[in-house]
Description:
two-stranded antiparallel ribbon; alpha+beta; globular; 2 helices; two-stranded antiparallel sheet
Amino acid sequence: MEKFLNCALCRKSVPENNTGITLLGSYICEACENKIANLAWDDPEYDLYKSGLKKIWRCNEA
């Protein structure tokens, strides 16, 4: 049975063998990873991705 991962940012479910990154134990899909890598500060989605990354960071603070 195939396992799936849920992206911490867009919540899409992708097969476990799909590319993407794990950041502090949270999975980020390839689409969101690429979007973040190419995101300009004045992009309308900038704050959305910024707050998503903050949530990942805050959930893993000691």
